[in-house]
Amino acid sequence: MLDKTVQDWRVMAAGLDIEGRAFINGRYENALSGQTRATLNPADGSQLAVVASCGPEDADRAVTIARETFESGVWAGMAPADRKMVLVRWAELIETHADEIALLECLDVGKPIADTTAVDVPSAVRTIRWSGEAIDKVYDEISPTSKDCLALIQRLPLGVVAAIVPWNFPLSTTAWKLAPSLATGNSVLLKPASNTPLSALRIASLASEAGLPDGVLQVLPGPGGSLGRHLALHDDIDGLTFTGSTEVGKRLMQFSGESNLKRTFLELGGKSPNIVFADADLEKAATMAAVAVFYNGGQTCTAGTRLIVEEPVREEFLELVIAKSRAWMPGDPLDPATAMGPLIDAAQLEVVDDYVGVGCAEGARLVAGGRALREDSGGCYYEPTIFAAVENRMRIAQEEIFGPVMSVIGFSSAEEAVAIANDSIYGLAGAVWSRDINTAHKVAAAVRVGTMGINNYFGGDITVPFGGFKQSGNGRDKSMHAFDDYTELKTTWIEFD
Ligand code: NAP
After folding, report:
1. Rounded Cα distance, 243 and 237, in Å
2. Which pTM value belongs to this model?
């Protein structure tokens, strides 16, 4: 993988045969309307593929197929040990095609090839394999009632599940949704983001090759505003799992209430605090503060965009972080040496640049970056950008920018650090850096987020749940807890004579 040069990847990219049709009932098909949409390479603006643009009529057809498949029991009725074998085979096939899928993800999203080969593809493989391996170790329960009766508590699949995912981690979020929903026996429809449908379309046929029965997994690319909305309002879909913005998540909750109250689980935005005390290992904390924001160009829900630093070391630490940010100058994502690629598209670049203008107008001090780069490339590159003298009430500290922009805020006491951290509508992730375990643990306990690091950032594994507090969502991806989102508990009460 990483022994390949940029030239090797370019040659491989030129030879790719990219599938852009929807995956319905085990086959690739065009949208019923015949409509298509081009998907572009954010690195240079070139067209990568023409992709089916599915609409409500395709959704209705796919839901009917999914319902029939579910009711037939061909998957839901299969022994968990047999479902496991299919998922493990699927993971193996993705691994076999790892370079191709990593390349597709790199081209479609603009993610550095170093990341898609080392992170995105291995993480998807592990997620699918782990969920498969886990599912035949999940026991149902018998409740402690009297000896005259027996109450069985069983975990049953929801039925037909729709999954809607974003463009920033298309393969990872797809795997986080598909692995547990399929493992628990549901029939699943996936709507990838319009910008980034390619990896999901590719792995769908590998699922079939692994033995997943036709109609159990269907992938429908198409616009969120029409196709996504139709899925969320559909009366024959039992569960909706979503990763994306808080704004759209709120609409989906409404759609559930306006339709059949489908179980709706949301993984949403963030504005995560990264708290650095004066006694921390400042060198390590500075390295990771830069990783926390600039990884994936800041297009990460858990990005540590609010860097909250204890006053005595604020200026010293700022200098360290500015120095670290230079390692994140954006470059060609196909070059294995590139750490940060382009933003997803021109619209996102404009959003980021507008926020930089807002930060300056609000009185924050721009100390690094603040400009688009490599404009001749045709791609959407932006400098790693740092604002100092930020106050937490400012828009750049409250709103999710989704770009490589860090806001540095000072604090004078642990209580103040916690108050600043919690002064947000979001509660997805955060971190605290201190050599004093008492301070670190107390602060970590008081910050209201789903994942908190102590002397690390981006800690995570398939074995631990991932999700948010407050307006960062209500669901949990990964770990055995993810099975809860895709199952109903049913009690069967048996009385003896
Ligand atoms: P988005 O605009 O909310 O879109 C997410 C998905 O929803 C896309 O597939 C989109 O389709 C679809 N969609 C848009 N409008 C819809 C509607 N009215 N009804 C149904 N579906 C609709 O988010 P994004 O810009 O792709 O992704 C960035 C956001 O995702 C950020 O807020 C980030 O924090 C969040 N995120 C959260 C997590 C987490 O685990 N908490 C992980 C990753 C990302 P189109 O592509 O066609 O618009």
Report:
1. 17
2. 0.98
